[in-house]
Design a protein that fits this description.
With 318 residues, the protein is of the alpha+beta class. The protein has a domain at 136-317: 3-Layer(aba) Sandwich (Protein Transport Mog1p, Chain A). The chain is 18% helix and 23% strand. It contains five helices and ten strands; from the N terminus they run H-H-H-E-E-E-E-E-H-E-E-E-E-H-E. It has helices at 2-29, 74-77, 134-139, 222-232, 306-314; strands at 163-169, 174-179, 184-185, 193-196, 208-213, 242-253, 256-269, 272-283, 291-298, 316-317. The strands form two sheets. A seven-stranded antiparallel sheet has the order 3-4-5-9-8-7-6, with helices on both faces. Strands 1-2-10 form a three-stranded antiparallel sheet. Residues 51-115 have a biased composition (Low complexity). This is Fibronectin attachment protein. It comes from Sphaerisporangium rhizosphaerae.
Length: 318
């Protein structure tokens, strides 16, 4: 019986030892784990701000915010409305902007260009206003009155200058009588042919006979082209010259049609009033422009006015 009690005591002691060891192990393991109601242990705070908020996470809470991954939506990656995407660039939602460009929603801007919203229409461009035509400009010139009704060229008194042979103007496509003695050949430019009378002291002008293809814009009517040509000849009269018409008529140069204008040019030289008698004859030659014959003779050389009649009657196409 004594033996049985000893065995039971030994078993109880062994069980007690094992229970003590188990209890100690469980207690030791539970020391590092917080209870449900206990505070969380302090740890190093996260240094990464939450994307888009600008605020640091609360102490001890790990950051779960990540930078946008490639392929994410534009709304996730784009800065918040009103933020600056790049220095010096102001953008609006949906706008594609370049540095230094102010863009509006829905537009794509280029450097140095201010664009408008889609659908607003293009920037208005001033429509060029057409200028006056050459004819309208000439008609508004106070130096040149309107042409009269058909009026024939006067027969000037006296005899035409001695003549010998003909002058051929290949550029203009005409020929005319060659005056000799007083009419002297001179440098042609800008004309095709040019002859002059001797200079007269104190008159400021001398006789001039010149030909060339008409040097102004050709009009629909030969008469209008002659009108512009006569106005152009004021470049070869003294400053302040004005025209008074004496003739406006059709004429024939051989079988070619022509238009003749006769006129007086009044001007002042040396404080005195002077008058030059002039004529412009246009001939409708096959060339691109009509041929022009221009002659002007001042009052100081009025004995040569008859040369105007001789010249005009001698014009022929080549």
């Amino acid at each position: 019986m004594r033996v049985i009690y000893r065995l039971l005591a030994g078993v109880v002691a062994a069980v007690a030892v094992v229970a003590a060891v188990v209890a100690f192990s469980v207690t030791d393991l539970g020391k590092g784990a917080p209870t449900a109601a206990g505070p969380a242990p302090a740890g190093p705070p996260s240094t990464l701000p939450v994307q888009g908020t600008g605020a640091a996470p609360s102490s001890g809470a790990p950051s779960t915010s990540q930078a946008p991954l490639a392929g994410t939506s534009a709304s996730a990656a784009a800065p918040a409305s009103g933020s600056a995407a790049d220095p010096g660039v102001s953008t609006a939602p949906g706008a594609s902007a370049s540095p230094g460009v102010a863009a509006t929603a829905g537009t794509s801007a280029s450097p140095g260009v201010t664009t408008e919203p889609a659908g607003a229409g293009s920037t208005p461009v001033a429509t060029p206003q057409p200028g006056k035509s050459a004819l309208a400009d000439a008609e508004a010139d106070p130096r040149v009155p309107a042409l009269p009704a058909n009026r024939r060229l006067a027969n000037y008194p006296g005899h035409g200058a001695p003549a010998k042979g003909r002058v051929k103007d290949n550029r203009s496509g005409i020929s005319f009588t060659r005056f000799v003695k007083q009419w002297k050949l001179t440098k042609s430019s800008p004309f095709a042919t040019r002859r002059v009378l001797p200079a007269v002291k104190g008159v400021g002008h001398r006789g001039l006979l010149a030909t060339c293809p008409v040097p102004i814009a050709v009009q629909d009517e030969l008469k209008d082209t002659a009108f512009l040509a006569a106005r152009w000849t004021l470049n070869y009269h003294p400053d302040g010259s004005k025209i008074t018409w004496t003739a406006s008529q059709r004429f024939k140069a051989g079988k070619r049609e022509g238009w003749l204008l006769g006129y007086r040019v009044t001007y002042k030289a040396g404080g005195k009033k002077h008058v030059a008698t002039a004529a412009v004859a246009l001939v409708d030659v096959p060339a691109a422009k009509p041929a022009m014959v221009f002659i002007t003779i001042p009052d100081a050389q009025k004995k040569r006015w008859a040369d105007i009649n001789t010249l005009i009657s001698s014009i022929r196409p080549l």
